[in-house]
Amino acid sequence: MIPKKEKYAFLSFGLILLAIALINLSSEKDTNDFISRQEGEQLNDTQEDRPLIEEIRERMVKEDMNVDTRAQPLTLDLETAKNLAFPLTANLEDYTLGDSRRGISTSGKAGGSAKAGVLNGQYNLLVETTGLPEPKAQDYFEVWLTRNTPFAYVSAGKMIKADDTYQLTFASTKDYSDYDFVYVSIEPPDMNPRPADFILQGQLGQGPNQ
Q1: Does residue 95 lie in a domain region?
Q2: Longest dimension (CA), the chain
Q3: 203: number of CA atoms within 13 Å, CB side?
Q4: Measuring CA to CA, which residue among 40, 18, 206, 51 is closest to residue 108?
Q5: How many CB atoms lie within 10 A of CB 106?
Q6: Residue 97 neighbours by CB under 8 Å, 6+ apart
Q7: CB 129 within 8 Å of CB 183
Q8: Does the pLDDT of residue 112 top 90, yes or no?
Q9: Residue 175 falls inside a structural domain
Q10: Separation of alpha carbons 62 and 83, rounded Å
């Protein structure tokens, strides 16, 4: 028979373990709730941005722009671009909300970054992405820069696949620093100078990724 004193000690120890387990369970639930709220806020932000982005895309598609929408870029190799100290940066967010675009789906989890600015006497842009699936057939990903006032846009060109991700470098003697919105679209091989379907979007700003 276990002495009464030891029995009470075992019982107290068991209650302590139970209390710790309940605290851990509550903490885990709070953490999961917080993550869910954060993901929900990000989803709501993207949903709120959709009308504006669609309006911009419609203007890019419909308006007769007095600009060359396919700029003639200078050469900027990827390794050089990655070592530049860009003054403007942006986080690229998935615009699709998981909807498919031209037969592919990012599951709403694609992303990336854009860096830009005038360096060494020319405008430079570096775009790196994550989570973009392989396009169907001859489709390809293209990067666009837009300016809202006065409205204008330019294609920075097709993205290339490197290190299992899609990336782009772009350089020009023209300063595009006031083109502060960056979009990644998926395009058919039709040589249309207007964008087809947006997948990623972001806004360039000063300092760390916005």
Answers
A1: yes
A2: 95
A3: 8
A4: 40
A5: 23
A6: 43, 46, 47, 50, 108
A7: no
A8: yes
A9: yes
A10: 38
**192 falls within a domain:** yes
CATH number, domain at 153?
Answer: 2.60.40
Q: Which residues of 113-135 are buried (b: 16+ CB within 10 A; e: fewer)?
A: bbbbbeeeeebbbbbbbbbbeeb
Closest C-alpha among 144, 148, 151 to residue 194: 144
Q: Kindly write down the DSSP assignment for every residue of the chain, as one continuous string.
A: ---HHHHHHHHHHHHHHHHHHHHHHHHHHHHHHHHHHHHHHHHHHHHHHHHHHHHHHHHHHHS--SS-SB--PBP--HHHHHTS--SEEEEEEE-STT--BTTB--TT--EEEEEEEEETTEEEEEEEEESPPPPSTT-EEEEEEEETTTTEEEEEEE-EEETTEEEEEEEESS--TT--EEEEEEE-SS--SS--EEEEEEE-EESS--
User: What's phi and psi for 13, nearest 5 deg?
Assistant: -65, -40
pTM for this model (two decimals)? 0.69
- Asked if residue 120 belongs to a domain, the reply is yes
List the domain range (segments joined by +) for residue 147.
78-206
What is the tally of structural domains in the chain? 1
- Taking only the tens place, the pLDDT of each residue in 10-65 is 445 555 555 555 555 455 544 445 444 444 444 445 455 555 556 665 666 555 54
Give the separation between CA 119 and CA 137, rounded to whole angstroms: 37
